[in-house]
Q: What sequence folds into this?
């Protein structure tokens, strides 16, 4: 049982105490400094297993993830508002301080997706927010003919995101925004997507996230790809963790844990070709398939990534 005796946990708890006492989480010197310290604390590889944290630290972790999500949303709204003042907002994405991270994460996710679905016709991004950088980067750099449907429950976030894309002659015709809870999106819509991305902060608690995954498992088209963002090690104090065992109804193809400044792990899974998985809702008892080579958990190594993935695909 990991508790307050661990130096890493002590430092994270100290930062949590300071963050929780902030008057608000809008971008400011104090907010930016504390969250930067938190991220830098959690980035180095650490063998911590968050499932073995004591109850007190589990509660702090849950609250910290919520605070991180709130701060991230406010940061994105702040910069989306700034970008929206430009005639061509997408020409100024580098004003967002974490834009380089999104470039790296999107390149990683594209390289992980490409061996399994190189040219999707339609892609859904669930939890796109006011600054849908993943969709924008994928659409402009990697998936240049794919149509993107972005889902978010916040109408104001969608309005801000749409304003960024509207002036772009290409993306304005390939990128759409829907103010809907993904749990309310019916099967006839979800089956239209070749690929579905699930943002890290959709379903802050694992029970909520598993409900979303169950809904996708029951309604996505067989053979479609699900890309799920997760976290590993101390980074699990920043984002929820999704384990392969949570992906009932999917064949897990790859799990990658970056070791650089890219925070999120990525889980790639394929909707199983199965006549019926209606029993999933009974205790998440649907089929879980692991390709012995492709489901191997590995740290992200950008050198030779494409060749390695091609070999994995061949072996499967």
A:
């Amino acid at each position: 049982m990991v508790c307050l005796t661990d130096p890493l946990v002590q430092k994270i708890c100290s930062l949590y105490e300071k963050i929780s006492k902030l008057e608000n989480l809008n971008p400011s010197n104090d907010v930016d400094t504390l969250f930067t310290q938190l991220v830098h604390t959690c980035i180095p590889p650490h063998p911590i297993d968050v499932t073995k944290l004591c109850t007190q630290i589990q509660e702090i972790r849950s609250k910290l993830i919520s605070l991180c999500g709130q701060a991230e949303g406010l940061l994105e709204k702040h910069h989306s508002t700034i970008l929206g003042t430009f005639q061509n907002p997408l020409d100024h994405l580098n004003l967002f301080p974490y834009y380089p991270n999104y470039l790296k994460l999107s390149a990683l996710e594209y390289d992980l997706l490409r061996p399994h679905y190189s040219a999707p016709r339609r892609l859904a991004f669930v939890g796109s927010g006011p600054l849908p950088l993943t969709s924008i980067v994928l659409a402009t750099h990697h998936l240049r003919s794919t149509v993107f449907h972005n889902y978010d429950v916040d109408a104001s976030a969608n309005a801000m995101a749409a304003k960024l894309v509207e002036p772009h002659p290409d993306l304005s015709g390939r990128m759409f925004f829907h103010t809907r809870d993904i749990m309310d999106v019916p099967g006839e819509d979800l089956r239209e997507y070749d690929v579905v991305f699930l943002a890290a902060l959709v379903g802050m608690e694992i029970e909520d996230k598993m409900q979303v995954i169950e809904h996708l498992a029951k309604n996505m088209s067989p053979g479609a790809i699900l890309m799920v963002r997760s976290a590993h090690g101390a980074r699990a104090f920043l984002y929820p963790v999704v384990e392969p065992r949570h992906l009932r109804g999917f064949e897990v193809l790859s799990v990658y844990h970056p070791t650089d400044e890219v925070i999120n792990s990525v889980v790639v899974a394929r909707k199983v070709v199965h006549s019926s998985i209606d029993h999933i809702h009974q205790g998440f008892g649907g089929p879980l398939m692991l390709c012995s080579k492709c489901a191997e958990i590995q740290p992200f190594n950008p050198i030779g990534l494409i060749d390695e993935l091609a070999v994995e695909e061949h072996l499967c």
Observations:
- The mean pLDDT is 87.
